[in-house]
Amino acid sequence: MTRVMHGMMTRFAALAVAALLAGCASESYVVLLDNPDGSTGQVTVSGREGGTATLTKTGQGADLTPTAGEPYLVDDDRIEQDFGTALAATPELPTRFLLYFETGTTTLQPPSEAQFPEVLAAIRARPAVDIGIIGHSDTQGDAELNARLALERAEVIAERIRAANLDVVEITVTSHGERNLLVPTPDDTAEPRNRRVEVSIR
């Protein structure tokens, strides 16, 4: 089972419990919803007395009964009625950005420099955010120096965010150096996509 499916399974459980606690007249059921990225996973509901229902399309539902039963379509109004409160309480997923740097420097590449206002806009869109910033390097040169350079890159981005005077609770800055490569390469290899900073806004 993929990670996306597992995430959906967790969400299904929360929705099923919400329907049960609400004391709905109908049977408790599971409904398949889109993932945040717009994709749709898959889940199979197994009844205690046998029978399965496999959900593969957005809006498909299955009753949580001893025999599971056949999948059926659940309209938006019913989803909102049964699960609206639970969906509204679901924490917003982090927003992530990758910013890329010129080789051996703390200077953003032009496309990433042009993207930086989007980072600030994403921070403004959330109240009292926590931000994680991780610096990375490629494998060209000394590993210890690369770890230092990656940290400097992360700190540069952190300072630019602080300078914007936004509603930020905490900024955590770390360096992974050349340990977590986006693109696997041999040692002493220049790779622009590995010279990056990850910004996670939550």
From TrEMBL:
PROSITE patterns: OMPA_2, PROKAR_LIPOPROTEIN. The keyword Signal applies. InterPro entries: Bact_OuterMem_StrucFunc (IPR050330), OmpA-like (IPR006665), OmpA-like_sf (IPR036737). The keyword Magnesium does not apply. Gene3D superfamilies: OmpA-like domain. Keywords: Membrane, Signal. Residues 1-30 form the signal peptide. Residues 88-202 form the OmpA-like domain. It holds the Pfam family OmpA. One of its GO terms (cellular component) is membrane. This is Outer membrane protein, adhesin transport system. It comes from Roseospirillum parvum.
